[in-house]
From TrEMBL:
Its cofactor is pyridoxal 5'-phosphate. Gene3D superfamilies: Aspartate Aminotransferase, domain 1, Type I PLP-dependent aspartate aminotransferase-like (Major domain). Pfam families: Aminotran_5 (PF00266). Residues 5-349 form the Aminotransferase class V domain. It catalyses: 4-(phosphooxy)-L-threonine + 2-oxoglutarate = (R)-3-hydroxy-2-oxo-4-phosphooxybutanoate + L-glutamate; O-phospho-L-serine + 2-oxoglutarate = 3-phosphooxypyruvate + L-glutamate. This is Phosphoserine aminotransferase. Its EC number is 2.6.1.52. It is found in: Cytoplasm. L-glutamate binds at R42. Pyridoxal 5'-phosphate binds at A76, T77, W102, T152, D172, Q195, N237, T238. Pathway: Cofactor biosynthesis; pyridoxine 5'-phosphate biosynthesis; pyridoxine 5'-phosphate from D-erythrose 4-phosphate: step 3/5; Amino-acid biosynthesis; L-serine biosynthesis; L-serine from 3-phospho-D-glycerate: step 2/3.
Amino acid sequence: MTRAFNFSAGPATLPESVLRQAQAEMLDWNGVGASIVEISHRSQDFIAVAAEAEADLRQLVGIPDDYAVLFLSGGATTHQALLALNFAAPGQVVDYVVTGHWGKTAIKQAKPYCTVNIAADGEAGGFHDIPPRDSWKLTPGAAYVHITANETIHGVEFRDTPDVGEVPLFADFSSSIASEPLDVSKYGVIYAGAQKNLGPVGVAVVIIRKDLFERSGQPRADIFDYRSHAARDSMLNTPPTWNWYLAGLVFKWMLAEGGVGEFARRNALKSSLVYDAIDASGGFYRNEVVPAVRSRMNIPFFLPDETLTSRFVAESKAAGLLALKGHKAVGGIRASLYNALPVEGAQALVDFMRDFQQRNG
Ligand SMILES: *Cc1c(COP(=O)(O)O)cnc(C)c1O
């Protein structure tokens, strides 16, 4: 068996040791005589797993006690709608800062429930930069300001938390949570689908400053109410137990590897290896994002033409470098360098890139 280096944008690569542990525990978890996917979410056994995953995530990310942590299904996109339902009054203005594809998705999901103000939009510039903070047209009294911390498709990442004053800042951290130290206290809500940097698809993490639960939001079913989920420890209905367990194993792995400080170091190293290879290629490889906001997690880049792009995708796959084809919205190549992608993976990609250019440049 050989495991390739997997550059998939999501669902993405997981640590081999986590997969091995899950494999070893598949038929008989913790001596209970059944798989963890076969036992009740209300059992003491599962409740302990769930609580431990939450405690480990709190330690890993540094989540203060005045924040609730929810483990819910639905993916990040569902929460883009639920945020408006829970925290904006009917018709209330919400400010969106759009720096790529997922910011647009966030607006689409929230629009039925609030008045969307696009406070800043990088689309006219092809999403190659983040509009400067002093150009944002924020609304006094907005329900919240929404940003996408890392744009997974366009490869644009906030490198600082923007100051938006009194209005709570809500951020989609799906593709960069736990990739470096984060000051959670600067945010009202942080949410992330797990399948990029935290674990398997099927569970999302929603981190909510508890005072926001006092907002009445809008008429909604109980199952769409974050307060109800929080009151029932994310077990208002049957939670995605397998995904929660597997994410918990990933949290333990990240803590054992040295925590977010160590992943910040590795991610900076991996991304600079790839960006340096692009920038040193004399224009053979091209990344169009302004260097100050280049993503450390997802690197889209382009070759001179479609023929070379297709050849690059096919030959890299044959060389054991998986899923480098770019997202159809932007084309080209995309290398995702999440926490579980080792430094050797980035080095192997860079070696391949140099060799490919020598043969085709
Ligand atoms: C993948 C992704 C999403 C969508 O997540 P789903 O779980 O598929 O809903 C949203 N935002 C960002 C930044 C993403 O990377």
